[in-house]
Amino acid sequence: MPAQQKSSLHPNNRFNGRYDLEKLSEVLPELKTFVFTNQYDSQTIDFADPKAVKVLNKALLLQNYDLKYWDIPEGYLCPPIPGRADYLFHVEEFLSKKRGGREAKGALVNCLDIGTGASCIYPILGNQEFGWTFVGSEVDPKAFANAEKIVAENPKLKDKINFRLQYKKTDIFKGIVKKHEFYDVSICNPPFHKSAEEAEKGSARKLKNLNRLKKGEKPTLNFGGKSNELWCEGGELKFITNMAVQSKYHSHSVRWFTSLVSKSDNLKRIYEAIKQAGAKEIETIEMNHGNKKSRIVAWTFLPPVGS
Ligand code: SAH
C-alpha cells in the first residue's frame, strides 16, 4: 500500500501530503526500525501494524506540535492523525461560516470532546491548530488516566485541556456539562460497531483490504482499538440518536452539537432523532478521506449568532 492516500483532505489540513519519514525519524529515531522501501521504491511503514502506526503518530505529534510526550497503553485505539485533524478543520470552517466569516480560533472557543480516548487526539489537535480550550469526557478509566497523563507531561497543554470521567455509559452530557458552562461546539467520534464480534469483523475487513489477513487467520485490531472502545450496544446509530435526544436538555450549554457518522445509511434516522429533539438547524458536512467518504452531522437549538 502506498505511504499516503490523503489528497482529498481539507485544504488547510497540514497532513495533506506525504510524510517525510526521514525527517520524522530524526525527531523520533525509534521510527527508523519500522520504515522500509516498498515495491514502488518509496519509503513507508506497515499500516497494518499497530506498533508502527503508534510510533508514526508519536513522531507526527512531536514534530508538528513540539510535544514532549505522547503514548497510549497497549491495545488502545491508535487514531490515524490526518483523518482526525480533518474533522477539526471542517468544524473550524463551519463555525467560522456560522459566525459570518469570523475565524473560530483562540482560547475563547470552548470545545467538548465526547469520548476523548486514551490518545486525547482531538484536544491536542484542536488546541495546537486553533488554540481552542477543551473538556474531554471518557467512560474508560484507563483511557481517561492516560489522556490526563499526556496533558500533565506537556506543559503547553496544561489548563487548556481538562477531562471528566463519565460514570454511566448511556449518558453523554449529564454529569459532564456543568451548570453555567458554555461550549461553542461538541465533537464526537462514536463507538461505531454494534458488538465486540462486529468490531472484530470490521478489523478483519480492514486487514483484508490491506492484504494482510491469511485465510482462517484471526484478526488483531489493526489500529489497536480495544474492542470495548469500538463498540456500544446499538452501534453508532444508537449512540448518536441517544446524543440527539439528550442534547435537547443541554440546548443552551452547547451551540453546535456535532458527531462523525461513518455509515451514510444511518443519516436518515439520525436526522429524525435530531428533528424530534427540536433542533432549529441541522447540517451535514461531507468529508473525503482518500477513497473513503465520511461525514459530520451538526445541529443547534440556538438562533444564529447576531440575530
Ligand atoms: N476520540 C478518540 C476515541 C474514539 S473511540 C478517537 O477519535 O480516536 C470512542 C470513545 O468513546 C472510547 O474511548 C469509549 O471508551 C468512549 N465512550 C463510550 N461511551 C461513552 C460515553 N457515554 N461518554 C464518554 N465516552 C464514551
Would you kindly provide a written description of the structure presented here, covering whatever features stand out?
By secondary structure, the chain is of the alpha/beta class. It has a domain at 79-194 and 225-300: Vaccinia Virus protein VP39 (Rossmann fold). It has helices at residues 21-27, 50-65, 81-98, 121-130, 141-152, 196-209, 227-230, 235-247, 267-277; strands at residues 36-37, 43-44, 110-114, 133-138, 161-165, 183-188, 254-261, 281-289, 292-300. Strands 5-4-3-6-7-9-8 form a 7-stranded mixed β-sheet, sandwiched between helices. A two-stranded antiparallel ribbon has the order 1-2. A hairpin with a 5-residue loop joins β1 (36-37) and β2 (43-44).
Write the layout of secondary structure elements.
Layout: H1 21-27, E1 36-37, E2 43-44, H2 50-65, H3 81-98, E3 110-114, H4 121-130, E4 133-138, H5 141-152, E5 161-165, E6 183-188, H6 196-209, H7 227-230, H8 235-247, E7 254-261, H9 267-277, E8 281-289, E9 292-300
Parallel strand pairs: 3-4, 3-6, 4-5, 6-7
Antiparallel strand pairs: 1-2, 7-9, 8-9
Helix pairs in contact: 3-4, 8-9
**In angstroms, what is the radius of gyration?**
19 Å
Strand order of the largest sheet: 5-4-3-6-7-9-8
**Average pLDDT:** 90
Count of alpha/pi helices: 9
Amino-to-carboxy terminus distance = 50 Å
Structural class: alpha/beta
What fold name goes in the CATH topology slot of the domain at 79-194 and 225-300? Answer: Rossmann fold
How many strands, what sense, and barrel or not for the largest sheet? 7 strands, mixed
The level 1 CATH classification of the domain at 79-194 and 225-300 is: Alpha Beta
The general outline is globular
